[in-house]
Amino acid sequence: MATTAATARRTGAWTPWLYLAPALLLLGGLLVYPVYQLGLISFLEYTQAQVSGGEPTTFQGFGNYATLFADEQFWQVLLATVLFAAACVVSTLAVGCALAVLLTRVRALPRLALMLAALGAWATPAVTGSTVWMFLFDPDFGPVNRVFGLGDFSWTYGRYSAFALVLLEVVWCSFPFVMVTVYAGIRAVPAEVVEAAALDGASQWRIWRSVLAPMLRPILLVVTVQSVIWDFKVFTQIYVMTNGGGIAGQNLVLNVYAYQKAFASSQYSLGSAIGVVMLLILLAVTLGYLRILRRRGEEL
Fold first, then answer.
1. Rounded to whole angstroms, how far apart are CA atoms 265 and 275?
2. Rounded to 5 degrees, what angle do the CA atoms 142, 147, 150 make?
3. What is the pTM of this model?
């Protein structure tokens, strides 16, 4: 009997993995193999000459990474990417959380209108949204310059104004995910808890900071990590709205920089090395964030 029970327990332990096997095989084909190829190419000399078969592919070891790290432009682009992504994440979370709280304070019809408008922004393709924002801020025909009396001011000419314009578009298409997710979490919080805080005289900000935010920490973890990943690897908005990275590359981020190296310059190995660096940075940020939460005793 004991042997039979032990065998049953071992069989039961493998049952979840059997159910997950098809999904794991699919993820392995769609994720693991491309990452393997990305890493492999980053260690090779792989340019247009190798692609066309004119020259043999040679192993470079960490030579591509040494070339990349010796390039001053790479470090400038990396710093710009980190700062831009941080600004996008903070702005997206602020707007999304504020609107999530607002959804709990308005009536059904305004709430429905806001939800539909937000989901429309979320569903808009990045290329379409970027083109619309370019028209809105066009120096000749855009309504924004006319309303604010800015004349023919070009938002994409200056480095910081171009980054600000792209940030607005990124926040516009990203906040609905945060808003809907946090709103669902707020609705799951017992109403008695919020009412008790309000009866004690707590302001809306104090209720959010001391009551809702601690209870929604697992949800905020998810939306924060997702926002970091999305905003760190922004490509379409920068490429479309700054015409490939701005004047003299002043608005380059790592994804666009990798594209230029790989396809514009046919240095596929350098582009792959940049991709590997981005992957490692995102893994480090995510794992570091999870480790901090575990030290604080939070459930993941």
1. 16
2. 75
3. 0.86
